[in-house]
Amino acid sequence: MSVQEKFGRLGTDNAPGQEGRQKVGDLHKLMRGGTLEGVTVDFSHGDVDAFTPTPGSFEVFAEGVQRGGSQAYTEYRGAGAIREELAGKLAAFTGAPIDMDGMILTPGTQGALFLAIASTVARGDKVAIVQPDYFANRKLVEFFEGEMLPVQLDYMGTYGEAGLDLGQLEDAFRQEAKVFVFSNPNNPTGTVYSEAEIRRIAELAGKYGVTVIADQLYSRLRYSDVTYTHLRANGIDPENVITIMGPSKTESLSGYRLGVAFGAPKLIERMEKLQAIVSLRAAGYSQSVLQTWFSEPDGWLDGRIRLHQAIRDDLLKVLRDTHGMEVRTPQAGSYLFPRLPDIVVAPADFVRILRLQAGVVVTPGTEFSPHSAKNVRLNFSQDYTAAVSAVERMVELIERYRA
Amino acid sequence: MSVQEKFGRLGTDNAPGQEGRQKVGDLHKLMRGGTLEGVTVDFSHGDVDAFTPTPGSFEVFAEGVQRGGSQAYTEYRGAGAIREELAGKLAAFTGAPIDMDGMILTPGTQGALFLAIASTVARGDKVAIVQPDYFANRKLVEFFEGEMLPVQLDYMGTYGEAGLDLGQLEDAFRQEAKVFVFSNPNNPTGTVYSEAEIRRIAELAGKYGVTVIADQLYSRLRYSDVTYTHLRANGIDPENVITIMGPSKTESLSGYRLGVAFGAPKLIERMEKLQAIVSLRAAGYSQSVLQTWFSEPDGWLDGRIRLHQAIRDDLLKVLRDTHGMEVRTPQAGSYLFPRLPDIVVAPADFVRILRLQAGVVVTPGTEFSPHSAKNVRLNFSQDYTAAVSAVERMVELIERYRA
To answer: Span A28-45, mean pLDDT?
Structure first.
């Protein structure tokens, strides 16, 4: 594949955070009525002004700067002392030991995901991908010229399981998928995989020798009635799994760009080799901030979860009062993924109209699955009042454009 | 190429900063005599405790954290206001205008180099690479399965030019090299390309339609008698050149991981698409620190250059007093690349012995060229006294192991 073709397929115009670069074009011809007043809400990512970074994180960063050279120039896989402390905390959280040769700090979880896929997928390799799932999974497989084998997630199905089509997953493995990558909780739907689903994934991966990359970015932000099962502690071959996490979301530490991948040492070693030519290391001073992770003040995380649950519940009410709107209650994370009723404009145009007429920025469902054209994703980690008002404006526009 | 093969070729054991991961093995059998006492000096990178970050950089970072969400979540190519300010400064420095669609902020210059090569080199594409040059150039071309066409640099030749074999460069272009990547000042030798060399590179690139990636990381740290020629302002097609710089070296801001690439908008656009799946963006808060770049206090940069020149000159004296040692006077940057006299142990073993017996960490020449096995690279941005003493110990060990 030529470089032109490769980048032709790598669209980012609809990617979260890039809305400012969208061309407006002939959109005005489609618009009905005037604009709706209200505080602009950017649901493409969380609002770190509404939910501020972990208390003390800046102070720990400042100490890192004070430490100077040893913190600026760490090993490519990150500072040893910070990794060691973190390995203990993450082993406790996920319920299985972490080999000190099996952990790397990265520039964000995006960095970890890139390195993990680059280290396991070569041209022509088959990769099982969930639909819908985090948009970069698909793009990364395409970039490395792998072949995607989609596996559907029936996220509107039974509450208490994610709804993965396990038959389809086994078919993909039987067709010699080399890698399976998935997010748990699922991004964009917020569903959490049940213990039975996770155990079956582990069993199938073992049977067919598939490497699994589990993106558990949101696994700390879980609502009241949820049981979470860590893949790495549930029957999978430790030499064939990489788990990815990071303090960027729940803890609002995105501005520091930190992620961590842990698992099979042979894969972590590849990831480090590649990091050496991709970005050298996660920003040295930022690495210090990981010392605050899993060491937050008592009750801080619980409080944060309660506030998110309140926003979730009230937005769900507004959405469910809308005729024809379908939405799953997320069990974890801060995403809603409603399927909109039929409207007279194309979904992609509606997303742009929503931004221009109502000051509401959402991410189109097609970023996550070709079958989700009628969905939009909202990150509801926002100011409560602003978020409720923005979703009300979205609903008002849906009525205005209803088919 | 399978993933195994790809990573098998991607060695980092001798990469700067990774020395702690080297296996010692049977080295003790080769060692002569005891250890030499002295302060350990890690010449694999600059010492940011000896040359501290730009005054005010931490305060500007803190203001970025205060700004909150807008600084944490920038466009993938970096915050607009910061890019705009920087474009003006870099246009003035390099002597040619910068298109606002033609600039991206990256996690370090390593990030910029990765994105630039990934955006121009596909499998089988030929790439002209200077020998010696920055080790990642070669590794990146290998990672993307390009084919290297080496071009020799006669860096011990005439002072006042870098010594690039322009005939060999044209041969490479005639053999349909698609890309030419080089560092100026050259890393590891510190030579600066003459105006004639730069103009000829521009002319040949135009004639053969080659894209040029110019890594100008050290172009601010220039010694007293040096004329520096910016490729982008000297006759090259602006649609076929990317320039890379960053505040990580001269300004000791490496701990923030910042780089910038500027040039052809069509290539910058590809680089941004790729950054979206590699690391999203340069750490948001860190981006603020770029506001201090090219806005340092009066005289600060001159003072820094004077101190480096003093260290350079005194280390050169120690090296040149050693029989059989060959070393070029660097015109810019903070690298020395001496060629060692004949010794009884293999050069790679000597590098390890040097670390274990003398507390002196250097980077082996083979990282930069297959023809530089007898060279080592030293980053002399160090504490003056410690650096001189460390090089004296290196010389003492050379005498001990002399053939």
So the answer is: 94
Q: Strand A147-152 and strand A126-131: pairing?
A: parallel
pLDDT at A387 over 70: yes
Q: CB B47 to CB A69 under 8 A?
A: yes
pLDDT of res. A103: 98
Question: Residue B283 to residues A258, A285, B402: CA-CA distances in angstroms?
Answer: 9, 11, 48
CATH class of A57-292: alpha beta
With beta carbons under 8 A apart, name residues in chain A contacting B83: none
- Closest residue in B to A255 (Cα–Cα): B72
Q: Tell me how far apart the alpha carbons of residues A372 and A347 are, in angstroms, rounded to a whole number.
A: 10
pLDDT in tens, B323-375: 999 999 999 999 999 999 999 999 999 999 999 999 999 999 999 999 999 99
Which fold is adopted by the domain B70-292?
Aspartate Aminotransferase; domain 2 (3.40.640)
Check CB contact under 8 Å for A21 and B75: yes
Chain B residues closer than 8 Å to A274 by CB: 7, 10, 143
Q: Quickly list DSSP for A155-222.
A: TTS-TTS--B-HHHHHHHHHTTEEEEEEESS-TTT-----HHHHHHHHHHHHHHT-EEEEE-TTTT-B
B25 Cβ contact list (under 8 Å, min separation 6) = none
Please report the residues numbered 231 through 290 in chain A whose beta carbons come closer than 8 angstroms to any beta carbon of chain B: 252, 254-257, 270, 272-274, 276-286
Report pLDDT digits (tens) over A305-361.
999 999 999 999 999 999 999 999 999 999 999 999 999 999 999 999 999 999 999
Tell me which CATH homologous superfamily contains domain A3-52+299-401. Answer: Aspartate Aminotransferase, domain 1 (3.90.1150.10)
Taking a contact as any Cβ pair under 8 Å apart, which residues of chain A between 158 and 197 contact chain B? none
